[in-house]
Amino acid sequence: MLEIIISAITMFIIKSISSLGYFGILVMMAIESACVPLPSEIIMPFAGFLVATGKFNLWGVTLFGALGCVIGSILAYTIGIYGGRVFIEKYGKYLFISHRDLQIADDFFNKYGSKAIFLSRLMPVIRTFISLPAGIAKMNFAKFVIYTFLGSLPWCFALAYLGKKLGDHWDILEIYFHKLDIIIILAILILIIWQILLNEIGRDSEISSEG
User: Fold this and answer.
1) Which of 132, 167, 127, 163 is nearest to 148 (CA)?
2) Which residue of 121, 126, 159, 209 pairs with 44 in a disulfide if CB–CB is 3.0 to 4.6 A?
3) What are the residue boundaries of the structural domains of the chain, listed by start?
């Protein structure tokens, strides 16, 4: 089932870029950066393969890929500002997110926002969802856009360059990045479990002190 879904997504990406050209790259990367898990590990290497065939220019696909990241990220950022905080404050407890967690996010982005946004653009999975908490934390918009673009450039260039070098075997990259995705997801799950345990310990301590 999973293989069928991945195959369908891959064909969707290939057809979109093949028919829409540079604009297709921009649209695909914008979708990925708007918190929709459309893998850039397929988008940019395929664009790089088309560079090898002479259809695209390497710097052109890099630029349009990075611009797509910015557009999609702005959308997710805007959702975070106008709806994300209200949603998290209302339903965050079901996701083990407290008001204190929101305050920590505010402080984090106010102090380290630029670095966090830049570095996250170089990390699979995390790069897809980082814009939403940035919007919730109301990170400075100009800095958000600048560092999103600067962080996306090397990511887009590296994937496109590898796709160009691999030629017809560009899809090999998706296998390796998918394995990395799994590692990151497992790390996130471990952190969630750890947070749950800490909350339980804190709750038990409060009950003991009240007793």
Assistant:
1) 127
2) 159
3) 2-172
